[in-house]
Amino acid sequence: MFRVEKLVKTFGGLMAVTQVSFTLEKGEISSIIGPNGAGKTTLFNLLTGHLKPDSGTVHFKDRDITALSPHRICRSGIGRSFQKTNIFPRLTAFDNVQVALMAWQKKTRNVIQRADRFFQKETQDILDSLGLGDKKEKTAGLLAHGDQRLLEIGITLGTFPELILLDEPTAGMSPEESYKTMELIQQIVRSRNLTLLFIEHDMNIVFGISEKVRVMHFGAIIAEGTPEAIRANDQVQKIYLAEEL
Amino acid sequence: MRPSTGNTEKSNLLMIGLILALVVFLALPAFISEGWISLVNEMLILALAACGLNLMLGYAGMVSFGPAGFYAVGAYATALILINTKLPFALAFAAGPLIAGLSAIIIGWFCVRLTQVYFALLTLAFAQIIHTIIFEWYGFTKGDNGIVDIPIPQILKSITHYYYFSFIIIVLSLILLWLIIKSPFGKTLQAMRENAQRAESIGINVRLYQLSTFVLSGFFLGIAGSLFCGFNKNVFPNYAHWGKSTEMLVVCLLGGIYNFFGPIVGSIVYLFLDKVITAHTQYWPLVLGLIIIILLLFLRGGIAGFIAERLTFRQRRGESAE
Fold first, then answer.
1. Using CA atoms, how far apart are residues B193 and B204, in angstroms rounded to an integer?
2. Which among A144, A164, A187, B189 could bridge A79 via Cys, Cβ 3.0 to 4.6 Å?
3. Which of B184, B194, B203 comes nearest A115 by C-beta?
4. Residue A175 near chain B (CB below 8 Å)
5. CATH no. for residue B109?
């Protein structure tokens, strides 16, 4: 469904992403882990059009989407969340999700009708599924950190993606919060029949819900497999051990 | 549901305020001298120009330093057609905003490629180009002599009649602007203002929407320019000068850029202060400077923003007291 082939990106001689290839099957929940600076976020930026690759291709549903602009890639059915909380801070939580729905359904060119008429129920459904239903009138930027992270996922869901790419969805959360959030995400992904690829720094969280784990190190994917296989992989252990020392 | 009760209460209050304002403005000519009617007329035209600018500034978060360029294009388009052709007034009047909108398409196409301070400076540069063209092209625009004694229909020559004419045009324009900001398009602009990168990731073509805003804004500035052309019956190159742009920016900030009525309040307060203070001292720019400093340091939401905040505060207190 989603196929990445030999993606390369260099920044002034530094290889940030080196010959990365992988494929995702429909409905798969998988993750990319790796130490800081391994190139995980750069890889995501290449997949969503925020950066242009030097070479390599990205195919989604048999269509070449390499280096399309971010809004075109979003339109093709790939939703993304960001590592740094990336919401519309001075709009209400409700408006944050509603505007994503309107963007997706191409209602944003409508200048005559009132925006309140659109997607009341759909917006409410997304907020409810994230447990934000009763906070919809609150200004997004004033929500608690964890709620802002969830709202960010809400915005992503508003574009009805088939594939979602989440960049450290639990960044800055406490361990308990992180587990709860990942469980919630898993539940939403299953019930909406989505494909999920997420980046995570914390190995324990990753192993809990991933069917497949990819390990990135110095810009390359050095191992790929089930959580058990990855856990047993010598090379991976060395990288993570080295980091802990 | 508590929040929505609060909202209806607020919108009822707003409705009453608006109807009251409408009645006051309609009845005004019966009670005040022609000099004051002229001043109110000027306030309303400036209010429309500032609201047109604020669509960009407050709603889409695009800081333009060159709104006066489109204002002047509107004014000169109407003036030149009236002076050089036998076309009816209505057509000459409509040509103002249309030509201003067209020039905004061309200028905007370049400007939306930049952001923030680069965007602001490019808008300023284009407005100064418009100013220079008007100033230097004697054969066409009569340069710094301006175009004087522009013929307008007999019926609009009376100060009161022109007041009602511009009042109707301005109210219609403001209703249109109100519909725009309440529409999905308007919501999209606000999302773009808050976070352009995120807006792009939910499938919004940010540049295209910025260009549309630029053109709409230019169109409304053009209406204001055309209205002022008929009001003054003379047009001068300084309509496009950066001083005029600054005036519009100050009016927006004074009233509050995150409130629809901000620029209207700002325009009324600004011109009123201008007239009152100039009557007593020639140091109006000094007072203006102080006002800008106070605004930026203590009243970031402007006057309308301040009032809206107070109202919400009272309402919240009322709710928690229940």
1. 12
2. A164
3. B184
4. no
5. 1.10.3470
Spatial CA neighbour of B41 closest among B207, B221, B164, B174: B164
Average pLDDT estimate for B262-272: 93
pLDDT at B222: 97
Check whether B135 has a pLDDT greater than 70.
Answer: yes
Name the residue in chain B with its Cα closest to that of A47. Answer: B201
CB contact under 8 A, A102 and B205: no
- What is the bridge-based pairing of β-strands A212-217 and A220-225? antiparallel
Q: Would you say residue B317 has pLDDT above 70?
A: no
Residues in chain A: 245
| Residue B149: domain span | 32-321
Closest approach of chain B CAs to the CA of A176, in angstroms? Answer: 28
Query: Looking at this predicted complex, what is its ipTM?
Result: 0.81
**What does the pLDDT look like over A58-84, one tens digit per residue?**
999 989 999 788 888 888 899 888 888
Q: How far is B43 from chain A (nearest CA, A)?
A: 27
Question: In this model, does residue A173 exceed pLDDT 90?
Answer: no
List, in order of start, the domains of chain A with CATH numbers.
1-77+161-245 (3.40.50.300), 87-159 (no CATH)
Q: How many domains does chain B have?
A: 1
User: Does residue A61 belong to the interface with chain B, where contact is any CB pair within 8 Å?
Assistant: no
Confirm whether B145 is domain-assigned: yes
What residues of chain A lie within 8 A of the CB of B209, using their CB?
A: 108
- The answer for A13, left when phi > 0, alpha when psi is -120 to 50, beta otherwise, is left
